[in-house]
Automatic annotation (TrEMBL), chains A, B, C, D:
GO molecular function list: L-rhamnose isomerase activity; manganese ion binding
One GO BP: rhamnose catabolic process
Protein name: L-rhamnose isomerase
TM regions (residue ranges): none
Gene3D superfamilies: Divalent-metal-dependent TIM barrel enzymes
SUPFAM superfamilies, A to Z: Xylose isomerase-like
Alphabetical list of PANTHER family matching this protein: L-RHAMNOSE ISOMERASE
Classification of source organism: Bacteria, Bacillati, Actinomycetota, Actinomycetes, Micromonosporales
Pfam families: RhaA (PF06134)
InterPro entries, sorted: L-rhamnose_isomerase, Rhamnose_iso-rel, Rhamnose_isomerase, Xyl_isomerase-like_sf
Keywords tagged on the record: Cytoplasm, Isomerase, Manganese, Metal-binding, Rhamnose metabolism
Top-rank taxon: Bacteria
Length: 388, 388, 388, 388
């Protein structure tokens, strides 16, 4: 049996990072439905992130996206965040929205564009220096839409060069989190399509480069928890972008589409000893709340991850090992499912109460009046969004 | 052996419709890369469509998208098109970009929104009356992102009611083309996800309702040519939206991702006697040229369909039937592949020359100076795009 | 709030049919791992099915597979089953294992083979007459492996003819359940690949033909609960083949791969008023227990369906409707998830205790000594399996 | 423009290995349809492979599968093969058909089973010593069907240990080809599911371990040519198992399902300088001819690969590079497609004629009387198959 006190300690210590851009407007290529009360600047995004932390207690950092969160004074932004009780998390780069990047950024056939893109990556490290951020998150929209459009292998050479230059600029306590994605916005080949590609580059870069798993970036049928287990074994898992999907990169709330998968992923995290913040994985949300209200959706996503984690922690690992070693297929599966089928909401309510929080963060948020306040206050200006 | 003269006659008679919106800007949720020379209004789109027809000879109609192509005087628009040698094709409705449609249009839980959406469908029929268009193309972005968000079955009832009201308004020579799509922009359930759903509604509506197949709207692994063959057998195939994809609804140039699939689709069209324009299928392109120049991309797409059709027409159907009836798997496959492996470009060059066209439409377009002219002329104003 | 007494009544009344062949050996093309104690004849399969019913109380019928379960005297087989407390359920036909069926059964280009296959279907109806079975389950392995191998449309004509002849032979209280499958064993096109194809044939056949959904027979990403909802609305859902899968037709224990999906399916059943045995749906298991012990695996599968059903029954449908009609995406989803996240095992334990059953069927089975007994007794002879 | 003489030299030098087991019976879990004339022993399989080489001229080696091709004297088998004009190719291991391997072979929780499996791998190296084979092909059916069934990470440790022991036993000129597969026969997680896993193990093993790509072993949508390009860049691509599929591991004839994909794969081979036999890639077929006659199906598969290769060689790489570097998407794609759309059958007919072969290998085989002879001669005995 799992040690309940230890489970509660682990849950209390869990950390989930929220992304600044999830508080802004988002949508599909068909339409962005603007929402009232959405932030107009990085400060307002941080205030929303701090609100999520206030009600959940486990989301003390917020990731930035540059240039969406560009400010003149990053030290000031950091202080502002700290004044609200949160810190700056990963710095996410954006080399896909400038007109120059139509055919790629660091893998573009044009050397000038590659220079521009790489300079942006270096600029992001400077922002990390200023904000105290440890993590440089790299996602490249680079790829091609048509067979023959560009040379797949030349693009790898260009990618490797840009990564090397960026890696060499990292400070002692900084690191690269290299994300991969099967498709979108490129529709024939992407330059970092899968974990293997990211892993191979990270191996060549060195210890400070690790793989970031976005749970929505895989081919149908991919077993994500296997990748988690494998990368932990190789000591190369650095971060998550949590979200969920039924089809492609749907970016729905984490745990909404397949809560059992989320549980299996968190079980591998627990089994690999990687839940503890000291291990160093950045557990981040990366979602789009296209039609639902953003702050409670993010609170709900945090809670979904907490519930999956609680179930993972409740697995009777001794009984599981016994059944596994005995080759008792049904019993081993039953031990795992026994934890999954447990209703962990009362347990999490206790953990929250112990931390001085409302046991029901969504209800508490709704009662708090925060939503009404931002709807009333944030009028005028340019709402934040992917185009901002 | 196929009768070469008959093949050439069939190719000369083939008709492919171009979509007005493919000449405008498009992109992904990450970025729309604007292109120089893109139309600023419906008239300029029609001029581009007429240009495609001038060089290919098989694209004499252009589909409209309402409200993107809204004008004050549709009779005038029709005359303008005819003056350029093209006609108005299908009228495509758009009930996904108004803020009211965040939770659906004709399936929205709010009766007022449903009324508004249905009124738009009826308005589109009025435009058909004014433009002489025969086809009302219905694609609904309706669906839900989260389990429980709305009742799947109530939404079907609402859909059926809107379709019925629309159907009853159709003129004697008008018809509904009901499109289906697995996902996007809805990410959990769409209200017309597959051909079966469209078919069942069409059966209930009556003879003037038929299914529209968008080649990019299926689950991975779906055998599209089977659907073509089946719907032809049921007399319920009304239209195509041609494009191609490697992953989801990528909207690449038709034939670019899987030319063999396009050939198999066109073979079922030929085998079902449905290539002849008199059969009544609207063979339309529906694509996004996000990074490639639009007019030559559309010319190329038309040519890809022509090449697939030529190969389909070259299948030695007597030999094929013999091998099929003999149960000779290898020979039957070989007969089909023999046609596919033929280089039909010389044959199509002849067909074009016979029609007084340049045998190489892309090269002719490039030499024509049209592209340079529109880039120079179309400066200022608001470029057409999905948001326009 | 759901009415708990009504929930318990519904759970007590639920019926799940077990398949005789799941008690026999099964495997993949790579290997069939034989298990000790596996039945050697239809009687022993029925005895195992009766055992599952003895411990679960909700599995009172067992489906037959002809010719795997061929006996000389079906009336006697029926009596034997009844003496053990179970009845004969659906009769499943098998037109894929005779050498004649290499290129298809009812869709074979050879008329003689088609005759032979159709005769088998008619023979199955005779067995239904003798056993009192109501349901003729039709699954056709028919299809082709290579483009061109046979004419897709001719095969539909042949299929329609065989179905018509079979349908016309049905007794007043008998019906056809027409299954569909995307692929395997045919690898390019199957003759009934999706629900739409089955539905269209059933519509043409008449009232006594309905669709059977095998949960493992879809393309990746298919929303099965939508199909359930849609077919219930059309009054054309006749049966389920329950199992689960991560990839293709894996035939794992129901609920093992995606318990949330099973819940969503059962929710549509409940919402459509179709759980009640009087509605007439045949809820059958169709699984392969390749590596796990068969009887407890089947008990576990029955329990998984019960748990999904219990959660579906617990959905607060008034609150759900309110949130749906209000367009409150998060709340509507939360109402559904609230039921899903409930631990229903205590509730089901009560339902079982009320019925005089052990609250834990798997543990009770393990204690019963049945497994040890069959392993000891069933020595010699030919174990049942797909080849038998 | 491609240098035609060089193209012909490259095509004449191309080498494709045939698999002994493809000449035997195969099927699906539903049925194996036996064919007349199928080999009864390794010698007859080799005779068939030699026949394929006789008519194609490019298939001079045949891969063995142990224990299916177990003989007392491997040196004698090698001499026999050489007397027919072919050599022994890769030795394929089989650790999935013994009853002991129900829960895995080298990753089994039972140390005794792991010992037995590893011993088989070592035995295969001894057979390589005796036959002069360079390649040890490792495919593991290992994996689990249910979440929790076994510990994913412990299984990696066991796999690494077995691979290490095997690697250390390799002779100076021998190497490991480590295959990966997403699923089947394991249905939840396989122990080497993707190229990344194989690659990571190969990197750790050393220079003599390289990745084997089976074209049917990927998740839907996987871009295989990207993997080819990437592994060539990393110098870690060792072998192919060619076949084709529409859905899962269908094992259809290479090039049958997606000839354009095969062309793109071969283009990356050509572009990477890896077509030359001196580069060292083992281009093998691995197929199942379940319903079509085996020898002509294999001849046809060889020809399909030749045609894809010829098209790849015809790509105007200077024009392609120019268009790519100019960022001319349409022109770059057009250059590639120009080669794909070429009918290369006349060119290959010339290459064959130059080599003293019949220009049409399938027709020549059919005229040769070989098929009739084996049907007549190979009567009695036990036909070879996966169970043999």
């Amino acid at each position: 049996m799992a040690d309940l006190a230890a489970v509660k300690r682990a849950l209390a210590a869990q950390r989930i990072e929220t992304p600044s851009w999830a508080f802004g407007n988002s949508g599909t290529r068909f339409k962005v439905f603007a929402q009232a009360g959405v932030p107009r600047n990085p400060q307002e995004k941080i205030a929303d992130a701090a609100t999520v932390h206030r009600f959940t207690g486990v989301a003390p950092t917020v990731a930035l996206h540059i240039p969406w969160d560009k400010v003149d004074d990053y030290a000031e932004l950091r202080s502002y965040a700290e004044s609200l009780g949160v810190g700056i998390g990963a710095v996410n780069t954006n080399v896909f929205q400038d007109d120059a990047y139509k055919l790629g950024s660091v893998t573009n056939p044009d050397a000038g564009v590659r220079r521009k893109a790489t300079d942006h990556l270096l600029e992001a490290i400077a922002i990390m220096d200023a904000t105290g951020s440890r993590d440089l998150k790299l996602w490249f929209a680079d790829g091609i839409n048509y067979p023959g459009q560009d040379d797949l292998r030349n693009r790898q050479d260009r990618l490797a060069a840009a990564l090397r230059e960026t890696y060499d600029r990292l400070g002692a306590d900084q690191r690269i989190l290299l994300e991969y994605k099967l498709f979108e916005p490129a529709f024939y080949a992407t330059d970092v399509p899968d974990w293997g590609t990211s892993y191979a580059h990270c191996i060549e870069l060195g210890e400070k480069a690790t793989v970031c798993i976005d749970t929505g970036h895989h081919a149908p049928g991919t077993n994500i928890e296997f990748i988690v287990a494998f990368l932990l074994r190789q000591n190369k898992l650095g971060a998550f972008d949590f979200n969920s999907r039924f089809y492609a990169d749907d970016d729905l709330m984490a745990g909404a589409a397949d809560p059992f998968q989320l549980f299996r992923i968190m079980y591998e995290i627990v089994r690999g000893g990687a839940l503890d913040p000291a291990y160093g994985i950045n557990f981040m949300l990366d979602q789009c709340h296209n039609i639902e209200t953003k702050i409670p959706a993010i609170i709900r996503s945090v809670m979904n991850i907490q519930e999956a984690t609680a179930k993972a922690l409740l697995v009777d690992r001794d009984a599981l090992s016994r059944a596994q070693n005995d080759g008792d297929v049904l019993e081993a599966n039953a031990v795992l499912m026994d934890a999954y089928n447990t209703d962990v909401r009362p347990l999490l309510a206790e953990v929250r109460a112990d931390a001085g929080l409302d046991p029901n963060p969504v209800a508490a948020y709704r009662r708090s009046g925060y939503q009404e306040r931002i709807v009333q206050d944030r009028v005028g200006g340019q709402q934040a969004g992917w185009g901002a």
